[in-house]
Write the structure tokens for this entry.
Amino acid sequence: MTTIAEVKRRLKGIKGHIAVAVWCREDVIARAAERDIVVTPGDADSILDMIDNHQDCEYGISWYTLDATTDEFIDNYFCPKCGSHWATHDGDGSCVVE
């Protein structure tokens, strides 16, 4: 996870102009809300971590990146039957809702 402290450490000693785009928890939550998706602050942090760990400097980070990563997060971490996080399910990943 990239934190503010980590960014400050990376920028220390750099002279001159730089270009920086910053995406934060509020961006993820607001964009998800525009799409009628509820994202908690913890979910937003996880989504930002996924973006940070897989970003491509050729394409950058855009609203589409937030949308696609939010969709991936929901598809991979939440049960489509009951909406619960997979961690709350039985060890075999099966849904308790029939």
Q: What stands out?
A: The two ends are 37 Å apart (CA to CA). Residues 4-88 form one domain. Helices lie at 4-11, 25-34, 41-54, 63-77.
